Structures are given as C-alpha cells and as structure tokens.
UniProtKB/TrEMBL annotation, chains A, B:
Pfam families: FAA_hydrolase. This is Oxaloacetate tautomerase FAHD1, mitochondrial. Belongs to the FAH family. The keyword Phosphoprotein does not apply.
Length: 218, 218
C-alpha cells in the first residue's frame, strides 16, 4: 500500500464522516435545534463522484438538496487525537457536496430510521481535486459558495461553524479512529435547495478552486 | 492493489453495510414494525475487531448489546445486481457481531438522529476469520448462536430472515454500489442482551466455526 497517493484519496480512502448542523443558520432553516455536540453520519466511499461524471437523483427521491461543505482530508490516522495536535493529522482539503435526499431524510427522522437512504447513495459525495494544506492556511476562515444554474444559493464562511475543525477531529477520533485517506465533511451553511435533472451546480472556495457538476436521473 | 487477499477483507475492504430488523422475532423483541423494505445502516472499516482484541464499551453507553449476524463478503463488485446472479458476487462469509449501544440507539431514534454513535464506534464490528463460499453451500439455511459467559442468548437460523441474501445484494447494490472486500451484515435473530466489562462472548455458525471475544472498557 506504499503507492497510495493522498491527492487521489477518493480512490482508496476508507471512510467519509459527515457532520450535520454545524452552521447555526442552516440548522435553523431546517427547523433543527442548534446541537450541543456534533451530529455525525457516514457515507461510503462508493458515494464519491468527480467532475465529469453526473450527480444522479436517486429513483426514490423527488427532493434532492445540495449542501456545499469544506472537506478535511486526513493524512495521519489516530485515535483520541487532542485538539492541540489535530491539525498535524490534516493532509489537505477538498470542496465537497453532501447531496441529501431531503424528503427521504425527513421520513427517516420522523420514523427514527438511519439516514442511509438519504445520505449514502451512489454519487452523494461529489468532491473537488485535492487542495494541499498550504493553500488554506486558516481553514476556519474561508468563503464557500454554490450556484445552481448560475444563481447563487449558498454563500457562507467557515468562521460560522459551531464546532471548529480541531474540535471535530478530536471528537470524532475518540469514537471512530481516523485513518490516512479519510474525509471529514464539516457541515453546510444556509441556502440548501432542491436540484433537478439537467441542473448545473457550480461551487467554489475563495479564489482557490471551482468545480462544476451536472445533475442527471438514473 | 493486486496483492489484496479476500481472506483478510477487514484490512482493506471499504465498507460495511448492515441490515436491521431482518428477523421478525428480533424486530418484535425491540417493539419495531416488521419492515416492508430492508433497513440499512453503515459501519466504517475502523469498526472491525478480530479475536485477541477486546470489544470496547463506548464511554457514553451503559447498555451495549450483542447481535450475532451472518456476514456476506463481496468478491465481485457491481451496481443494480439482479437477484438471479447475486450469489456470483459472493466470495465467502464471516461470522459477525453488530455491537449496538442500545441506549444511544433509542435516543437517536426518538430524536430522529442518525445511528452513528450507536452503531459505528471502534470495535463495533467483531468478525471471525473468512469462511470460503464452499463451506456454506446454502447460507439461507444455517444456525447462528451466541453465548455470554457460557449462557446461550441467541440461537437462530438464517432461514428466518425476512429478506434473502440475493434480495439484499440486489436491493443494496441498486443504491450503494458494491466493491470487492465489502461486507454485508444480514441482521440478527432474537435474544439480544446487554454485555458488561469482563464478559466473554462466544459465537458460532453450525459446526463450521466459533469465535470468542472479551468485553473491556476504554
Ligand atoms: Mg448512518
Ligand atoms: Mg451536510
Ligand atoms: Mg444488527
């Protein structure tokens, strides 16, 4: 496994850990309480999709939402990582979309069921190219935006996160050990909205990177 | 990646997909409705633990339950696999425990939160050695049992599954593509119960294999 290349983490990384409700304004727009500890859920690596391939609307959903998020790519694994050394475990970043079947998620929430069908389907995790750590000296202080068909929908700032990146790395790794190649999705700012077949999503982070995805149906 | 050995799938496999409530008698004991479609949730590969290492009770739980389950090890990946060819995608099996923080799961269910803290923590997926496909000619017709400190707690039969193995492979792969090395946990029969620090769990499948795990606290 010495040939693993962190810049292609989506090809071999073994988990995607997502944080929900990490921006107060987004928690409010979905009428959720602002959490007192991080809300965690998982996507499988089969959820990854890269530019050039479409985001597919699951056949069982009629309300697929975009959530633009900063992704943390883990370079050095660990368990119960202290906050003070958490950033040493970060190899870099990726701009990510946490695609969410909102109708299905609402149904899961009301029935007390796991969120898998809402969050873990194929193409539910579009990711940008790898962004090296040096390009984002302060990941708690960058702008993220997303447009649907050229209309701005989300325009937030990672300084609005409720739980900081070092806190999340420490909190998660106490429960779920982190490994090289893992990805942490850090939550989305407000402005999530529905996308349809043929829509074009464009997302960006500061002046560092933009990415574009088309939406398709199976 | 040509050196991957399916008999050590836990070292490199990228996902664990679990089916909940797949035995009617277990759904009833937890007062859940018998499902009309499979309930799916995920564990990350960091949840794997092998004999010789302990099962750890999460610090935030005081009601850790055992669930003995037949695990399906995927040999050939695929998307939307038809039921008729599903068994061609199976490389073999493993005896598995779906360790569940039942108090936390009850809390997640009542709050509409994902099941991650209840199901995905470190050591939440004890697995046996790999069992080759030939050793279980009919996986829908085998006995699974689990003892805690020599007392029989679960003694079920895979013929009691609500959704068959070919059905599960087909259903899952339509939503979440399967890859070589993936593991599917097929649900547990009735008899789940609480385990404590220093308990010894022994589980077996027919006369094919037994495994033993100790319970410890962090
Ligand atoms: Mg989940
Ligand atoms: Mg999100
Ligand atoms: Mg189970």
């Amino acid at each position: 496994m010495t040939t693993r290349n962190i810049t292609r983490f989506w090809e071999w990384g073994r988990k995607i850990i997502c944080v929900g409700r990490n921006y107060a304004d987004h928690a409010k727009e979905l009428k959720n309480a602002v959490p007192t500890e991080p809300v965690l859920f998982l996507k499988p690596p089969s959820a990854y999709v890269k530019e050039g391939s479409p985001i597919l609307v699951p056949h069982y959903s009629s309300n697929l939402h975009h959530e633009v998020e900063l992704g943390i790519v883990i370079g050095k694994g660990g368990t119960a990582i202290p906050q003070t050394s958490a950033m040493e475990h970060v190899a870099g970043y990726a701009l990510c979309l946490d695609m969410t079947a909102r109708d299905v998620q609402d149904d899961c929430k009301s029935k007390g069921l796991p969120w898998t069908l809402a969050k873990a389907f194929n193409t539910s995790c579009p990711v940008s190219d790898f962004i090296s750590k040096e390009k984002i000296p302060d990941p708690g202080n960058v702008n993220l935006w997303l447009k649907v068909n050229d209309k701005m929908r989300q325009n937030g700032h990672t300084s609005q996160m409720i739980f900081s990146i070092p806190y999340l790395i420490s909190y998660i790794s106490e429960i779920i050990s982190l490994e090289e190649g893992d990805l942490i999705l850090t939550g989305t700012p407000k402005g999530v909205s529905s996308v349809q077949e043929f829509d074009e999503l464009q997302a960006g982070i500061e002046d560092i990177l933009t990415m574009t995805f088309k939406v398709d149906r199976l």
